[in-house]
Amino acid sequence: MNDALDVEQLRSETPGCADGMHFNHSGASLPSRSTLAAIWDYLRKEATEGPMEAANGASTLLEEVRADTAALIGAKPNEIAFLGSGSTAWGAAFSALPSLVAGDRILVGRQEWGGNLATMQDAAARAGARVETIPVRDDGSIDAGGLASMIDERVRLVSLTWLPANGGLINDAAAVGRVTKAAGIPYFIDAGQALGQIPIDVASLGCDVLKAAGRKFLRGPRGTAILYIRQEFMPRLTPRYLDVLSGPIVDGVVKIRNDARRFEAGEISPALIFGLGIATRQARTLGIAVIRKRINTLANGLRDNLRSIPNVMVRDLGTELSGIVSFTVESIPATEVRAALAGRQIAIGANGVPYTPLDMVARGLDQIARASVSYLNTLSEIARLSEAVADIARRA
Q1: What is the 3 state secondary structure string of 217-271?
Q2: What is the C-alpha to C-alpha distance for residues 126 and 145, in angstroms, rounded to an integer?
Q3: Among residues 202, 183, 179, 249, which one has the least CA distance to residue 72?
Q4: How many Cα atoms are found within 13 Å in the side-chain-facing hemisphere of 353?
C-alpha cells in the first residue's frame, strides 16, 4: 500500500481530467485510460473473433476480477455476483427473501436510497406489512440503540444506506450489524457511495447482503455492480428467476447454484467486468485508507470554504463525514446552481426528494447541490469551485 498518491500522474492517466473540473464522483467518476483500454480491447476481440467465441477464453480472467472484488471488501469470491446496476443487485436480493405477510415490519435508515425504499414500500403495501424508520442521533446518523428498541418477532429486514446520496454523513453500519446479528434478522447494506471511497470489511459490518455500483468512487464503468451475499445466508434467498447459469436443469431437476452467482445471468458484458477489474485493482494498489485520507482532507477544505460564503449553507449531517459535500444557495434552486457551474466547465450533482425521500422531507429540503470529491481533485480545483459558488451566491 502506498502512503501517498502521485495525483498528477493519476490525473494524466485520466482523460476526463483534461476537460473541466469533475465534482460528480458520487454520480459517476472518471475512468482511467487503463480501464477504458480493457473495455475497448475486449470489444475489439469480440468484433474479430465473435462475441461468443471471445467469451470462451474469458472465464479465467473474469474469476480473477471476482477474486479481486471480494478481496476489496473482505469477502470470499463465491460470495460475489456481478450485475448491471446497484438497483438491480439490491432488488434481486430483496425479491429473493421470503414473501412478506400482513403484520411484518421492515426497518430502514432515514437516509435510505429512494429506489430501495420504493421497492420495500410497494412490497409492504401489497402484503399489509409496514416500513418503519429507525431513529437518528443528534448528529443525524442512525441510532443503533433506537433500532434495538424496535426489534420484535415481526421484523423481517433491516436495511441501511451506509453513505447517503444527499450529503456527507457516514452511518455507523457496524453498530447496526451488531444489533441485527444478536436478533438474527437479515441486514442489507447499500454501499453505493462507500465502494472505492472508504475501507469495507463485510465481516466487521455484520451484513448479510451488500451492494454497490462500480461507476462511483471506484471509477469503474457504468453498467457494473457488485452484490455480496454472506455464504451462510445464501440458503435463505430464493432467486425469483433463473437461467442456465444460475439454475440449470440437470436430469430433470433444477439445480440452483450454491454461490452468489445464483443471482447472475449468463448474459453479462465481459468488457465492462474487465473494466471494473482494472478499477478495482487500481484502488487496491493505491490503498483505500490512503484514498480515504486524501478525499477527507479535500472535502473538509471545501466545506470550510463554502461555510464562509454568504447565502450558502452546507447541509451535511454527521460526525464522521465522507467526500460528498452538500449545500444550498439561498433563493437559487440546486438545479440552477448545477447548470451555472456546468457553464464554467465544473460538474456537480443536484439531488431532489426522490433520491432520499425520508431524510429530505424530515429536514424540509426539496433540493441540494452535491459536490463530491475524489482523490483526483486538487486544491486549486477546490478553490476554483468555491470561487464559482461564491460568484453564483452573490446573485441571491
Answers
A1: CCCCCCCCEEEEECHHHHHHCCCCCCCCCCCCEECCEECCCCCHHHHCCCCCCHH
A2: 30
A3: 202
A4: 8
All domains of the chain in start order, with CATH: 7-30+287-393 (3.90.1150.10), 35-285 (3.40.640.10)
Return the pLDDT at 266.
84
Q: Give the list of residues 6+ apart from residue 30 with CB closer than 8 angstroms, or none.
A: 14, 15, 16, 17, 22, 219, 374, 376
- 201 within 8 A of 222, measured Cβ to Cβ: no
Provide the whole-model pTM.
0.96
pLDDT in tens, 133-143: 999 999 999 99
| Measured distance CA(372)–CA(216) in Å, rounded | 10
**In 3D, which of 2, 21, 1, 24 has the Cα closest to residue 11?**
21
Average pLDDT, the chain: 97
Length of the chain: 396
DSSP per-residue string spanning 139-171: TSSB-HHHHHHH--TTEEEEEEESS-TTSSB--
Contacts of 157 (CB under 8 A, 6+ apart): 94, 97, 106, 107, 120, 185, 186, 187, 188
HSE toward the beta carbon, residue 387, CA cutoff 13 A: 7
